[in-house]
Structure formats: C-alpha cells, structure tokens
Amino acid sequence: MNRTSRPHTGNRRATAAARALGAALSLTALLATSACAGDSQAASETDPSKVTLTLGDQAKNLKTLFDASGALEGTPYKVKWAEFEGAAPLFQAVQAGAADTSYAADLPTLQALSGGVRVKAVGALRNDGTHTGIVVRKNSPVKSVKDLKGKQVVVSSAKGSIAEYLLAHALKQAGLSYSDVHVRYLLPTDAQAAFTSGKVEVWATFGVYKTVAEQHGGRLLINGANGRVSGYGFIGAAEKALQVPAKKKAITDYLRRLDKALAWSRRHPAEYAKAIQHNNGASATVAKALVDQSNSALLPVREPVIRSVQKVGDTMHDIGVLTPNPTLADHVDTSLVKE
C-alpha cells in the first residue's frame, strides 16, 4: 500500500493501539497465572501430576489436532493453551515465562534465538513447503518472481518469518536482490483484510492465510515446494521449564502424544479436515488444503535438520534480516525425542 491510500489513519492508530493493549493484557494475564502456578510447583517439581504445562500454539493449529485426535486425554499433568496469531508474540510469552513450549517454523525460531529467547529446539516437524507462498491479486501484472522488482511486498507476520525467507530465496533464484523489493510487515489478519480489499497487491504468507487468500481473489505466484523453504519447523521448550524435572517429563510426554496425534491425522485426513472446519471456521476447501499441507511426523533434531535450517539462517543473515546469526546446534536438546 502506498501512503496516499490511508484515509482513516486516526482510526487505524486507535485500532492498533487497542490491539497492542489487548495483547499486553493477554500476556499480563498469562504471566500472572504462570507465576501462581510456579509457586505451587516448586515444592513438587519432580512429580508431573503437580505441574501445569502451558503449550504455546499459533492459530489453534496444535489444539485442533489434539482435540480431534484425543491424544492429550488422560495426561498426568494439567494442560493450558497459550494461543497467538504469530510466532513473535508466542516467543515473547516463552521468554516471559508465560508459555513452556513453542511451535514455529525454522526462521521464526532462529529469529527468537537471535533475539535472546532462552528456548531449546526439542523436536522437529516437516512438511512439503506448500503451506508457504507468495500470493498476488488475480488482476496483478506480476506473472513471475522477476516481475516483483520495484514492487511493495507485504510479509506476514513479522521480520524473520518463514514467508520472508521464501521471498528472499525466490528473489535470489530469480537473479534479484532483496533490495529490489520494498518489504512491509503486517500481522496476518491485517494483511488478509488489506489483500481482500485490494489494498495489497503482493503478499508473502503461510498456512491458513495463504489458502484463504487464494480463495478470495488471490493467485499463487510461487510456493515453498522443491526446496524453496526447508520445510522444517520446531517444537521448542523454554530452558527454564527444562530445568524443572517434572516439567521436562511432562514435555517429553507431550511430544510423544504429539507424534501420536500426527500419526492419527495421516490415518484420518477427512476427520482432521472436519475438525479444522469446526475449530477454525475454515471452509471445506480450505480445511482440505491445510490437511494436505500439514506436518507429517515428529522428528529428532539431528544433524541433517540442523544443517538445512542453518542454511536458512545464513541466507537471512547475508541480507541483514537475521543479526546476529545464531548457531542452531547450540540451542538443541536431543534427549526428549529419540529415533
């Protein structure tokens, strides 16, 4: 969007302020309840039945999977969900002690580590990359990545997202530099509204937002398949949580149950799609697409995973997006997920 098409600046600022205040209040509430839980857990830190595990999630992705599969039923520990629109606020919660685990793609995890978030990658997830894409309006003259030169590209959700890596990598493959486009960061819901209304021409996004964009006036320019993105994501665990024996046991059990839930989703794609429709308000078409693009299994964070993701970090560091560039191998705990 250019600056001349902003007739309601005051209202937008008020809305942004309200959203920021709401996010702050939500995080404050999480902090308060987490602090209370921490007091009661200190005396029985070796007994998982005495702890509450706060699971970080984005857009109800994991919660929907667990609700549909029933894989979290009967846990010896209490479970609480911390839901966020994107990875950045999720990692803020982890850093603040308001979430015990994280769930994010490779680059957002690297970005969090670069920013000093004390989190360990404890399990890897992988998909085929098609969940990430660059979408343009159907009437856009942009027909190839080379046509993006000089264009504004909206990236969701924040600096260092997996969608931004796709954009950077695609530009490099097309012989363009990152400075050949003008990047603007918007949270997915804001970007979706702007894209649907025609105020955004090019949008680099992911997941349900990409799928919905294609359903509402969007044309897929390119996706993350064929190695354009690594396809890896991570379940992370707050270092503070891992230092509590009972919580580490609970997180290990949670990961085992996540693997079972993913196996269930592979065996029951139709049921999983219906759950996405019900829990996330998605249409049948969008739900099916999300199932087709979903993660396949939980993997140990071994050398091939680390090497692939480190290349992502190196690329983003080279264009000035990821500074400093963390060494992923220094932020891994391989003791929770085995082969």
UniProtKB/TrEMBL annotation:
Residues 52-268 form the Solute-binding protein family 3/N-terminal domain. InterPro entries: Solute-binding_3/MltF_N, SsuA/THI5. Keywords: Signal. CDD domains: PBP2_SsuA_like_2 (cd13558). It comes from the Bacteria. Coiled coil: none annotated. Residues 1-37 form the signal peptide. Belongs to the bacterial solute-binding protein SsuA/TauA family. This is ABC transporter substrate-binding protein.
